[in-house]
From TrEMBL:
Transmembrane segments annotated in the record for this chain: 12-33, 53-73
One Pfam family matching this protein: Glycos_transf_2
Signal peptide: none
Keyword set includes Transmembrane: yes
Species whose genome carries this gene: marine metagenome
Residue ranges constituting the Glycosyltransferase 2-like domain according to the UniProt record: 98-245
Keyword Transferase: no
Keywords in alphabetical order: Membrane, Transmembrane, Transmembrane helix
The protein's name: Glycosyltransferase 2-like domain-containing protein
Length: 341
């Protein structure tokens, strides 16, 4: 089914471009020779209607819709196991939350972020995974009583997150929270996120609700629509005809999430496979949030996305995602990963 999904999406894009080009070319030639066509008694619609190219496009459209029908039929009962994909009450234990905070040269904000999460309920441990900062990030984090793991080189965000999850599995905490150290996320949202874990395995934040965002944050219109479209592409990939899909997503790039320990145990081997290593070995990869969501779905984790508050970044972006060309590059990475994972 993964191959069929990839073929459907790529062929759709090719057909869409072919239709746009066909229409554009015809409009162009009509604009140049419209008077001659009128004298000859041919209208614009007739020229298009009798075009051989249009007939070929129509044939390819018909083939595409046939494969779409096959995809939909095969997805009629996709992920509809009553024990795995419907309402279930998880055992209610007292939450013991481990907060993972990846850092790299965050001396300006690290204390504020650690204090924010330390002041929330049920915090058991805060682990700072530092990417070999050259400023005072480590010293400040240690002074805030966080457990700091210092790496010898900057291996990027994905490596820090996976390392943090490994440390979480060794601890006595039963819930892990993954956040960022740029001041955009708030510990205030933890309480409402944790509540949903009574009925699911992973709760992901979405930054798409305007009234919960601070004006001037880094999610410009380009990012808002890009994240939304790619999130819907994931929904289509895991589409179920009976329930419109196993998950509802609007923000593919949001790392802020809470996950039950049993869920991490279930996907821990996926964190060591070739896809994870490829992401982990690329310091500039922005795929970790996307990766965690998709392996969660594929391993039958129940995932819920809820609105969170989102503030302006403090400091500079360490990934360069604030630059348009870099953002386009990340978007293409996300798109290809969703197609081929």
């Amino acid at each position: 089914m993964g191959i069929l999904f990839t073929l459907l999406i790529t062929s759709f894009l090719v057909l869409f471009i072919a239709h746009v080009v066909f229409l554009g070319v015809n409009v162009f030639f009509w604009a140049l020779n419209g008077l001659d066509y009128v004298i000859e008694g041919n209208s614009f619609i007739e020229i298009i209607y009798y075009s051989t190219y249009l007939k070929w496009l129509g044939l390819f459209d018909l083939v595409w819709f046939s494969f779409l029908a096959i995809f939909l039929i095969k997805r009629k009962q996709y992920k509809t196991d009553s024990n795995l994909h419907y309402l279930e009450k998880n055992s209610s234990r007292e939450p013991k939350i481990c907060v993972i905070i990846p850092t790299f040269n965050e001396e300006q904000i690290v204390k504020s972020v650690i204090d924010d999460y330390s002041n929330q309920k049920n915090i058991n441990e805060i682990i700072v995974i530092d990417n070999n900062s050259s400023d005072k990030t480590v010293e400040i984090a240690e002074s805030c009583k966080a457990r700091v793991i210092k790496k010898e080189s900057n291996k990027g965000l994905a490596d820090s997150v996976i390392m943090g999850l490994d440390e979480f599995l060794k601890s006595d905490s039963n819930i892990v929270t993954i956040t960022e150290c740029d001041g955009t996320f708030s510990g205030y949202d933890l309480e409402k996120m944790i509540l949903y874990l009574d009925n699911c395995d992973m709760v992901i934040g979405t930054r798409q609700v305007q009234v919960l965002t601070e004006k001037g944050n880094q999610n410009s219109m380009f990012y808002v629509w890009g994240n939304y479209i790619l999130a819907k592409l994931i929904q289509i990939k895991y589409f179920s005809l009976s329930n419109l899909g196993i998950v509802e997503l609007t923000d593919v790039g949001c790392l802020y999430r809470c996950i039950r320990k049993e869920a991490i145990e279930k996907i821990k081997f996926e964190l060591l496979d070739k896809d994870a290593k490829k992401i982990r070995n690329n310091p500039n990869s922005g795929l970790i949030a996307n990766f965690l969501t998709m392996i969660g779905i594929e391993n039958n984790l129940k995932i819920v996305e809820i609105p969170i508050t989102f503030k302006k970044r403090i400091g500079v972006s360490k990934t360069g995602a604030n630059k348009k060309l870099k953002a386009i590059s990340y978007g293409l990475q996300f798109f290809w990963f969703i197609l081929t994972k």
